[in-house]
From TrEMBL:
Name of the molecule in the record: DUF4405 domain-containing protein
TM regions (residue ranges): 12-37, 43-64
UniProt organism field: Candidatus Yanofskybacteria bacterium RIFCSPLOWO2_01_FULL_43_22
Keywords from the UniProt entry: Membrane, Transmembrane, Transmembrane helix
Domain of life: Bacteria
Length: 81
């Protein structure tokens, strides 16, 4: 049972990080497209771009265990693999 839990946990966190990275890429692209002239207010484009960059960096940092995650959240931050 413990092995099944570990496999599920690892799979879940990998899926969570990959989907978060893709969400960040999507929001960056959507925000950039809005800023460059689609028919949506400019502040919405900047907001989408900022959220996309934050989502991308957060999930990328967690997936690759980058140093800025430990700098921002401490050595034992809230999302553990």
């Amino acid at each position: 049972m413990n092995l099944i839990y570990k496999i599920f946990k690892i799979t879940f966190f990998v899926f969570l990080d990959v989907s978060g990275i893709l969400l960040g890429v999507f929001l960056i692209g959507l925000g950039s497209a809005v800023i460059f002239g689609w028919q949506v207010t400019d502040w919405m484009g900047w907001l989408l771009l900022a959220i996309g960059v934050c989502a991308f960096l957060l999930h990328l940092g967690h997936y690759f265990n980058l140093k800025y995650m430990h700098w921002l959240f401490g050595s034992n931050y809230f999302i553990q693999k």
